[in-house]
Design a protein that fits this description.
The complex is a heterodimer of chains A (401) and B (268).
Chain A lengths: L1 E2 L12 H25 L9 H14 L1 H7 L8 H4 L10 H31 L2 H10 L8 H34 L11 H29 L5 H32 L4 H9 L3 H23 L13 H27 L1 H4 L6 E2 L12 H21 L15 H5 L1
Antiparallel strand pairs in A: 1-2
Chain B lengths: L1 H15 L9 H24 L17 E6 L8 H10 L10 E9 L4 E6 L11 E10 L7 H5 L5 E3 L5 E3 L9 H5 L6 E3 L4 E3 L5 H4 L6 H5 L5 E5 L6 H7 L3 E2 L11 E4 L7
Parallel strand pairs in B: 1-11
Antiparallel strand pairs in B: 1-9, 2-3, 2-4, 5-6, 7-8, 10-11
Helix pairs in contact in B: 1-2
The chains are: A mainly alpha (401), B alpha+beta (268).
């Protein structure tokens, strides 16, 4: 601790679990928005990742409330948020926004998209899985062209409703922090927007990584046209995200309100590694540069042509760096917002625990859990046997040459 | 009050004259007439000064009250007895350094650097030679009229009472700590024993019995004035009327009900 802290500020209130919460919901919103863009704007190239993105969003969404629940002093009373919510509280709205997003958007969209397959699997599968698929059809076994047209229309409408819902889901998480007027590090109208674009960035990067990993596990060739498009999308989203963050940064520096002194001291000392090095240099600028050069972000051809095998590896490294960067963004918001005193006179330190509910290992488990859920979801609802979808895109190299 | 006066009057009559004699001594009669009302007034003053208002024993009606506090920075001597009394009175878990109230010691050195320390118990003085100027600022929950903590609580476990005090329902708090983040004054903490949010209650258990908060009770300098905000005759209302006042962080529009007189700009 340096300088002066109010006596009740020495202990940090929100630790690693609360860092995970915006990180995980960001992945959900980002993955869903990627899938929606493909559907609404009919981006054929990224079609191989459409269902994968939906399942990724679902897997992460199922885990999203867990860090919050584990963090509560009284998890047993958490249902009070639903039963007797304080309607003026931003946090009280979480349950409703979450339920809306899970029930009305994600599950419905997945169901309409998979319905034809579910009907087919319920006749072909054997034993328990047959019953599972039969249950999943909810009795809607009509696969006539008219019924399928209805599925497509319903899916499209849900997607259109889903995009603002995904914006709401993560913009809202940003609002939880941005609306705290007591905290000058959080209190900014830009925070929900920055959260949203960083969510899109992390979602695209996550789907890219999961797609490449799934191809490797299935021993199939990565569709480079899809990967190039994902790389371009990642570049665009990263550009907007970085511009917004810079706008926030420059605005703070230029306005130089009374908190600027302590916040500058925090950024150049406590947050130097996580903000300057990991978030900005390695997590944003380096991937931006790499993606600008090797992805076809500006034209059909990249600035520097790189052979597909190497391009794939570079994309993976860039996406990993982006994940580190976005995780650090969440860290710097959540932890950074508690490192300085509201008296604006001192800085405290955050000591990461290894064990216990708030510890490193529990957080790591909560980060790996969605991947385990995703594996189960992929086994139950294989995303690559989309029989009724448009034919798979041509080989990327064949098209490009 | 009136009974006390007439009782004493009757007693004195019996002592000074023959009970069978209806004719009182004229001098005694005049003396008694003068003493009785004075005695009555004295008794009333003693009771008010002891903080035992009229409501003692009577049913407490929250809507009849609106509590607030004034802090006179120029009177605080930084002894820390308020913080200590609060810890004892309210069983504050002090092992973690938590405080419901504390005193900030502001020392501007001859190099024009302002150093702030928390005084949560009596502490030794600093070396006077290095001091340019110094003062103390007692801190506590500001019991805001527009409290951000109440706004953000997802379940409504923290609330404003009808008598204007911000409280936490420990049976209802889910321990999310959003209120602690939302408080601009650092007045809240999570009680590690109950795992619920906790803070100054203005010693609600005392004030509803007509007593003053423990910090006010023990302050040897009279730096804290507690009472009714909207009763023009109350000591607090009178103090507020005749003082130049300021609240902490007024730009946040929380409308605190703890008012500071002679506040220095260094205090945040």
């Amino acid at each position: 601790m340096t300088g002066y802290m109010y006596p009740n500020e020495i202990e940090l209130q929100w630790s690693l679990l609360i860092v995970l919460y915006p990180y995980i919901t960001g992945l959900v919103a980002g993955a869903f928005i990627l899938a929606s863009l493909e559907r609404v704007f009919n981006v054929r190239e990224v079609q191989p990742t459409y269902r994968l993105a939906l399942l990724t969003a679902l897997a992460f969404l199922l885990v999203a409330p867990l860090p919050l629940l584990a963090h509560l002093g009284h998890p047993g009373r958490s249902f009070e948020i639903f039963l007797t919510p304080n309607v003026r509280s931003a946090m009280a709205m979480f349950g409703f926004i979450y339920a809306w997003y899970l029930m009305v958007v994600l599950l419905l969209e997945i169901w309409f998209d998979y319905r034809q397959d579910l009907v087919e699997w319920s006749t072909k599968a054997k034993g328990l899985t047959r019953w599972f698929y039969r249950l999943m059809t909810l009795g809607a076994t009509d696969v006539s062209p008219r019924a399928l047209r209805f599925d497509a229309t319903a899916g499209r409408i849900i997607t259109i409703v889903g995009i603002p819902s995904a914006f709401l889901l993560h913009g809202y998480v940003g609002f939880i922090f941005g609306s705290v007027k007591a905290n000058p590090w959080w209190n900014s109208v830009l925070i929900p927007v920055v959260f949203l674009f960083s969510a899109i960035v992390s979602g695209i990067a996550a789907v890219l990584l999961i797609y490449v990993a799934s191809c490797r596990i299935r021993r199939v060739q990565v569709d480079m046209l899809c990967l190039d498009k994902l790389g371009s999308f990642l570049f665009y989203a990263l550009t907007v995200d970085f511009s917004l963050e810079m706008l926030d940064f420059i605005h703070r520096l230029y306005a130089a309100e009374e908190s600027i002194k302590i916040l500058s001291a925090m950024v150049t000392s406590r947050l130097f590694i996580s903000l300057v090095v990991l978030q900005v240099l390695l997590g944003t600028l380096l991937p931006l540069l790499v993606l600008a050069v090797i992805s076809p972000a500006f034209e059909r051809r990249a600035i520097v042509p790189v052979p597909p095998a190497w391009r794939r590896r570079i994309f993976v490294v860039a996406a990993l760096l982006v994940q580190v960067g976005i995780f650090c963004t969440r860290w710097n918001v959540v932890i950074g917002g508690q490192l300085f005193s509201k008296s604006l006179r001192g800085l405290t330190v955050f000591k990461l625990q290894m064990y216990g509910l708030e510890g490193f290992w529990v957080s790591l488990a909560l980060l790996l859990l969605p991947l385990a859920i995703l594996v189960v979801l992929i086994r139950l609802l294989p995303p690559w046997t989309n029989g009724h979808a448009a034919p798979a895109p041509l080989n990327a190299e064949a098209r490009l040459s | 009050m009136a009974d006390a006066g007439t009782g004493r009057q009757a007693g004195q009559v019996r002592q000074t004259g023959d009970p069978t004699n209806a004719n009182l001594d004229r001098r005694d009669f005049l003396k008694t007439c003068a003493v009785a009302p004075i005695a009555g007034v004295m008794l009333y003053v003693v009771r008010v000064a002891a903080g035992e208002g009229d409501q003692r024993g009577a049913a407490y009606k929250a809507t009849d009250h609106d509590y607030g506090m004034a802090v006179d920075i120029s009177k605080c001597i930084g002894c820390g007895r308020c913080a200590e009394a609060c810890q004892i009175e309210n069983d504050v878990p002090h092992e973690g350094g938590y405080c419901r109230t504390w005193v900030g010691r502001y020392v501007t050195t001859i190099d024009s650097e302002t150093i702030v320390q928390t005084i949560d118990k009596p502490k030794p003085a600093v070396d006077e030679k290095t001091i340019l100027r110094t003062f103390f600022a007692p801190k506590l929950c500001n019991h805001c009229a527009k409290p951000p903590c109440v706004q953000v609580c997802p379940v409504g476990a923290t609330f404003i009472t009808q008598d204007g005090v911000v409280l936490v329902d420990k049976e209802y708090c889910i321990g999310c700590r959003y209120c602690i983040q939302a408080c601009p004054y650092g007045a809240r903490y999570l009680d590690p024993r109950s795992k619920t949010a906790d803070k100054c209650t203005f010693c609600y258990h005392r004030v509803t019995r007509g007593l003053v908060p423990a910090c006010v009770e023990v302050c040897p300098a009279g730096a804290r004035i507690f009472g009714e905000l909207h009763d023009r005759a109350s000591p607090l209302a009178r103090y507020l009327r005749f003082s130049k006042l300021q609240v902490l962080k007024p730009h946040l529009n929380t409308e605190p009900k703890v008012y500071y007189a002679n506040l220095d700009g260094e205090v945040r």
